[in-house]
Amino acid sequence: MMRELLSRENLLSALKRVEKNKGKHGVDGMTVKSLRGHLLLNWEEIRNSLRDGTYEPMPVRRVEIPKPNGGIRLLGIPTVTDRLIQQAIAQILTPIFDPAFSEHSYGFRPRRRAHDAVKEARSYMEEGYRWVIDMDLEKFFDKVNHDMIMGLIEKKVKDKTILKLIRKYLKSGIMINGLEVISEEGVPQGGPLSPLLSNIMLDELDKELEKRGHRFVRYADDCNIYVKTKKAGLRVKQSITTFIEKKLKLKVNDEKSAVDRPWKRKFLGFSFTFHRSPKIRIAKESMKRARGRIKELTSRSKSIPMDIRIEKINEYLVGWCNYFSLADTPTPFKQLDESLRRRLRMCLWKQWKLPRTKVKRLISLGVPREKAYEWGNSRKKYWRISNSPILHTTLNLAFWRKQKLKSLVDRYNHLRHT
Fold first, then answer.
1. Count of CB atoms within 10 A of residue 81's CB?
2. Distance (Å, rounded) from C-alpha 268 to C-alpha 263?
């Protein structure tokens, strides 16, 4: 297996993936761009140490990412060299473990995505399973038991050098403010190997749910179980919590876990309508987050050229729309489009600054001279003027299309019909 890991084909594939994913530097400060040069100079030494089992991974760099709900997600960023090796390990382990994973598991798996998980959840609701047990695992990536995960890997991997290397990655430690902290438990979230290790661990939960005959969908540590009554939901929640905490040695977050109607919960950024044949909709929290990001990108206080501002907005909106185009209704896309254009009108009005500039610009957009003078000298606030008839008709949809602003509604319609 070590020969397979160190094969030219496997390593080139891993290198391309690491370069494609980009990402920040680790504790050694080396960037992804410098990786190829580093490997040309040092690969023979790295390869030999991997072969004889003496390779020592560097600690991961701890980064705190704010969560939308106010909490903090802890990420561990390995060095780019360790990312390459982890990716190479993941590539040889995936064909061994993935085929045996549950059909109801969708996170970080080849040819599977979040949209498939959401569609399966909807199908359970259509079958009459209209109560959901929304299980939240508390700090899952920080709580994984090392001996347990290694025991599960050892069932299928017999190469002792590979096993030793994986354990070293689990125990590689975390660098916090220049001090190294030893990892006694957990899988640092952020390395290429972490998603596969989490699936190996949580496959035990999947197998238990399948054995009990439950309808469920899991995406990484997001697990939803669908039942027909609230009473059944409470019973299943209690017994599955016991299994997770006693057998898997993980902790269920009682505050965030619940038995509720699916349309009152969110799953992977989506929710559902309450109809007999439910429609997929965008969760309120996801819309709130999108509006917040648009507000940041269209902040009046950020004095950046309009073309650069629009470029950044397009970059964000295209990715957002690609993901949320699964929703069955175009209304949220229309609302965000309108809100975005109003905010851009506000930015442009401020950018014009002087009354004479405003008058001149309005005239160039076809506004009669008297009207242009009246509005150009208006003392109304930026936000109020951004919604005025004069700016609505001049800085309209056609105007913003000329500025190369992408329309969410247009993209949504295109994605829904392709």
1. 21
2. 13
Is 70:172 a contact under the CB 8 Å cutoff? no
CB of 380 within 8 A of CB of 345?
Answer: no
Q: Are strands 270-272 and 174-176 parallel, antiparallel or unpaired?
A: unpaired
Q: How far apart are CA 317 and CA 328, in angstroms?
A: 18
Residue keyed to tokens 């000329």: 402
The pTM is what? 0.88
Note the helical H segments in 52-184.
80-97, 114-126, 140-143, 146-154, 160-170
Q: Residues 129-162: pLDDT tens digits?
A: 999 999 998 878 777 888 999 999 999 999 999 9
DSSP letter for 33, please. Answer: G
Q: Report d(CA 49, CA 55) in Å as an integer.
A: 5
Alpha-carbon distance 61 to 58, whole Å?
9
Pair type for strands 72-77 and 280-282: unpaired
Q: Give the CA diameter of the chain.
A: 84
Q: Which of 132, 111, 378 is nearest to 263 (CA)?
A: 132
CB 144 within 8 A of CB 194: no
Integer-rounded Cα Rg, in Å, for the chain is 26
